Amino acid sequence: MTGHVAVVGLGLIGGSAAQTLVAQGWRVTGWDPDAPTRGLAREAGVEVVPTLEGLAAAGASIVVLAVPLRAVRSTVERLAPVLPESAVLTDVASVKEPVRDAVRAAGLDRRYVGAHPMAGTEHSGFAASDPELLRGARWALTVDPTTDLEAFLAVAGMVTSAFAGVVHPLADAVHDEAVALVSHVPHVVATELLNLVVGSPVSEVAQGLAAGSFRDGTRVARTTPRRTQAMVTDNAAWVSAALRLTARDLVALADTLDANGSTDAFFDRADVLRAGGAAGETRQTVEVVLDDGWQHGLAERGRQGARLVAVDAARRSVVLSEALPTPQAGSAEA
Amino acid sequence: MTGHVAVVGLGLIGGSAAQTLVAQGWRVTGWDPDAPTRGLAREAGVEVVPTLEGLAAAGASIVVLAVPLRAVRSTVERLAPVLPESAVLTDVASVKEPVRDAVRAAGLDRRYVGAHPMAGTEHSGFAASDPELLRGARWALTVDPTTDLEAFLAVAGMVTSAFAGVVHPLADAVHDEAVALVSHVPHVVATELLNLVVGSPVSEVAQGLAAGSFRDGTRVARTTPRRTQAMVTDNAAWVSAALRLTARDLVALADTLDANGSTDAFFDRADVLRAGGAAGETRQTVEVVLDDGWQHGLAERGRQGARLVAVDAARRSVVLSEALPTPQAGSAEA
Known about the structure:
The structure is a homodimer. Chain A is α/β, with parallel strands linked by helices.
């Protein structure tokens, strides 16, 4: 499967996506507001156009928004009047609800499929992009009740074929809550561990005695904090809620320690994640034809851990990999 | 420099210390309550005795307590009546105030020097011990106003020579507060990150989307939680205080996010730790003769980041490596 994709924004992720598609034999038209970036992309085999309007008119069947979240709203406002009816819209942002809000405001929501490839580096810009960066990654694809089936099959087909991606089909809110837990909150907590040491009267000693647990726990906070701050701010509501849960749990543990009580419940709670997890699970592959109401059903299977591994557009079906219930009682890991 | 050391408890740390000393040409007498452990230690060149009382009578000049913290009090109670006046007492526990309390209660505090080598593995027992585990490590050595100078010079001499250790001379409370910040709280926070995912309605998705930041941030929580629980419980007061600070900061950040306020202060606070730190610092080496009141003066220099790198027992002096103030404004990293 190949096709014609337009990429808006040729930074680390947009540039990597464009290069992957070129390498896989797809036709790629690209645009970036930065002229030197456009030059680099042209050298890498991207058909570069000088304006966003020119990109919209290039005839691509899928348009990938790869601009920073703060630029999404203005970009879709400019695209809406010039984008052909047949074009599908997707993106690569790390949060999905704010993107869909912007797309809906521009009247493009039916043909929008949210996408978030779970890959990246600490660098940025086309010069840091890499045709292998997104290959084989896990991708979240998000839908809502209005999502057009053809649009979803087009994007899921591109991800599973050109990117060899494993797709988690999800509702926007489920995606945003989950990435708050496994990405944004861990970044905040790592930052807070550094802040505690900086603010301590024994800061010099703490730095001197710091060993492996501290280095690992703070690694993601040691580079420039601007990217972390942007991710956290973009997903503020879910991050805020999870931080309040974290604070509540830490205060409860402090109370237990001060009262000389049992801390077993705190330390044993995650035993299900320590018990080997995926090693013991059995998965099955099923083909699912997407009928009316497919959006809710597919997102619900995704919430339970289903992964979409292939698309058959002609049959309007997808192939899902799902965990079978295991005979071990209490094993809830997918 | 060599000498005769008695090691009480031949597990991972006691066994490693004993093997290091043997390899460095020291005479080592050892005891452990477990008979098979005594057999392993004997094969490794340790002069093993069958009873704790026999160990006390063996004539060692330094006795290293390497028993679990819960066994420290009963062990020093048994040692106190049989230990020769000339023997110096030290230990390897990860918290120092509770050990000194037990040693003081047994009347042995003048000749006790607290010690905590900043090294370890996730294994335990003599079979996991290694003569290289503690070599070249950073060690905290703690003193209080009653500490005998000869005792301190003996322990610091052993650590800097046989173990090639770099010593942070500290007050007990400073040590315990610092390790709460760089070891115990990071372990708790890693555990909480796992707990959040386990307790979430989107747990399966979160596990599926987890990437590098989550793996790094939870690594130390993924093995058996019993060791973390013991460390945290042993240092409950400092850990509890630091957890309350953490919770306060996280709630403040959540409030700021909910109010759409500026999060710059939170994300920039640790910039001093990100700015290259030690790379830009200049250190000087000074010899310090330890006179009356040396305990407070040395611990205060240690609190400010001084490291003890050598001992001259005949001159009653130590060699310290200390950071020079740097010309860069705002660079506070030692």
